[in-house]
Design goal:
Family: Belongs to the zinc-containing alcohol dehydrogenase family. Quinone oxidoreductase subfamily.
CATH superfamily of the largest domain: Medium-chain alcohol dehydrogenases, catalytic domain
InterPro entries: ADH-like_N, ADH_Zn_typ-1, ER, GroES-like_sf, NAD(P)-bd_dom_sf, Zinc-ADH_QOR/CCCR
Pfam family, one: ADH_N
Mean pLDDT: 94
Helix content: 25-40%
Keywords: Metal-binding, NADP, Oxidoreductase, Zinc
Largest sheet: 7 strands, mixed
Structural class: alpha/beta
Number of helices: 10
Protein name: Zinc-type alcohol dehydrogenase-like protein
Distance between the termini: 25 Å
Shape: globular
Low-confidence stretches: 341-345
Strand content: 15-25%
Number of strands: 16
Order of helices and strands: EEEHEEEEEHHEHEHEHEHEEHHEHE
Length: 345
């Protein structure tokens, strides 16, 4: 089957950084399902893994963690899906990725594709939504009941990015007052369209900006980019007994002691934890994605696609990786197979 992969970890400008290759078509065993890939989206995880030499198995290495497609075959122990089902999911970091014609995935981390979306729009959602959902509800421990969050505020740092674009919408549904950070006119417009209550600039000191809009502190912070850059600002504006969730690894040591007097909780979110460690609650991602599909079909969550490219090949994936590496993307970049538009919507 066709795939896009590589043999060596190289910068994106290198001619062999991503290549069109042929690999054997896999076969589902146990609880795995084989999915015919119709569309994929590209996340910051893709260039990070490509650059950092995180070897999984033997070369060629195939990346990709956001898929929408159709179930082709199911393993003998599967109970959740059947051939012909339209699905979406984000896969696992410790298995071959989805930048291929067919992809093998554990059914417990797969959801039913929203009926109201085509494959391209559906492929934009899983990784960012799982990250946002787990970050807000599992890690920060925020209630899903809007009544419980009356007068509670959250600061989302990097609100215009892939995860931020979804986190803003979910935090809104949960009844929080949402303050998002954005710095360019186009990203400010984007987060306003998604429903933030206030916008501040992440290149300026947070506290004076928050005070201008009537806040001395925030109850929750969800930091979706440069942890090191924002740490001191975060420690200054988090409320006593507040909670901070981080998703980007710090490069320098961070001064946790700054939070001691406020008894602040700091938590990490990685959406691959459940699939990497096969945790007891791994099937929560299946339920989460099915709930997401319902919210999308009810018109409560919108997709965040800002660019579609066709078909899925090495040249187009290189283009997408380079855009992600620029750090200036808004929303999500999606690649779709030429025939993806022919699927039933």
């Amino acid at each position: 089957m066709r795939a896009v992969g590589f043999y060596k970890y190289l910068p994106i400008e290198h001619p062999e950084s991503l290549l069109d290759i042929e690999v054997p078509k896999p076969f589902p065993k146990g609880r795995d399902i084989l999915v015919e890939v119709k569309a994929i989206s590209v996340n910051p995880a893709d260039p990070i893994v490509r650059a950092y030499d995180n070897k999984v198995g033997e070369p060629p290495y195939v990346l990709g963690w956001d898929v929408a497609g159709v179930v082709e075959q199911v393993g003998p122990e599967c109970t959740l899906f059947q051939p012909g089902d339209e699905v979406f999911y984000a896969g696992s970091l410790i298995r071959s990725g989805c930048n291929s014609e067919f992809h093998l995935v554990d059914e417990r981390i797969v959801g039913r594709k929203p009926a109201s979306l085509d494959f391209a729009n559906a492929a934009s959602l899983p990784l960012t939504t799982i990250t946002a959902w787990e970050g807000l509800f599992d890690r920060l421990g925020i209630s899903q009941d809007p009544e419980a969050n009356r007068n509670k505020s959250i600061l989302i740092i990097g609100a215009a990015g892939g995860v931020g674009s979804i986190a803003v919408q979910i935090a809104n549904l949960a009844g929080l007052t949402v303050i998002g950070t954005a710095s360019r006119p186009e990203s400010i417009q984007w987060v306003n369209e998604l429903g933030v209550n206030f916008v501040i600039n992440h290149y300026e000191a947070f506290l004076p900006q928050l005070q201008k809009i009537g806040f001395n502190h925030v109850d929750y912070i969800f930091c979706l980019n440069n942890t090191d850059q924002h740490w001191n600002n975060m420690t200054e504006v988090i409320a006593p007994q507040g909670k901070i969730c981080l998703i980007v690894e710090n490069e320098a040591p961070i001064a946790l002691g700054l939070l001691k007097s406020k008894s602040v909780t700091v938590v990490w979110e990685t959406m691959f934890t459940r699939s990497t460690f096969n945790t007891e609650d791994i099937e929560e991602q299946h339920r989460l994605l099915n709930r997401l599909a319902e919210l999308v079909d009810e018109g409560k969550i919108r997709t965040t696609v800002t660019e579609k490219i066709s078909p899925i090949n090495a040249a187009n994936l290189k283009l997408a990786h380079a855009k992600i590496e620029s750090g200036k993307t808004i929303g999500k970049i999606v690649l779709e197979q030429n025939d993806a538009r022919l699927g039933h919507h």
